[in-house]
Specification:
By secondary structure, the chain is mostly helical. It contains 6 helices and no strands.
Length: 169
């Protein structure tokens, strides 16, 4: 990071690096949760939802790139060992032991809501004090909000489908 960039940083750098490393760990876990869940998923609307979940996975990976780049710019060290992801992450990784689509979607919804909290925390911590990190946090927050919306819509669609199917029986 350039010397001026460090000079204008008006937050506790160590605290910010802790937050960013936790976010980085959570992004890797989110990526894998989306990716493996999409591959294993079974049930109604799978053909429509699977490619969308894979897009979400790619977006989570892109978030990790933004976060790791910022950590390096701040002269920090990104989390180096995948074993540390679950230790650093505040968001849980839910194994997709039940491949039913609603279970997978609810696991992803839980993860998105945790990610929303994470990026709101980072945005609040950096607002007016670290413009670069703030912009990254807001960008990612907006994508996480979009993911939450998509997942909730799919869950609602599946519920409606099930209700309509019950009426026909």
């Amino acid at each position: 990071m350039g010397k001026e960039a460090i000079k204008i940083l008006a937050v506790d750098r160590d605290e910010l690096l802790k937050m960013l490393n936790a976010a980085l760990a959570e992004e890797w876990l989110a990526y894998y949760q989306y990716w493996i869940g999409a591959r294993l998923m079974e049930g109604p609307m799978r053909a429509e939802i699977e490619p969308e979940l894979l897009i979400h996975a790619t977006q989570e990976l892109n978030h990790a790139v933004l976060i790791v780049n910022r950590i390096i710019q701040l002269e920090g060290t990104p989390v180096l060992n995948p074993k540390d992801w679950t230790k650093l992450a505040h968001c849980d990784y839910d194994e997709p032991k039940d491949p039913y689509i609603e279970v997978i979607l609810n696991q992803n919804l839980k993860g998105e809501r945790c990610a929303i909290e994470r990026y709101e925390q980072i945005a609040n911590f950096t607002s007016g004090k670290d413009h670069s990190t703030y912009q990254i946090a807001v960008q990612i927050l907006n994508e996480e909000l979009e993911h939450e919306h998509d997942i909730q819509d799919w869950i609602n669609d599946i519920q409606r489908m099930k209700e309509e199917w019950k009426k026909l029986r």
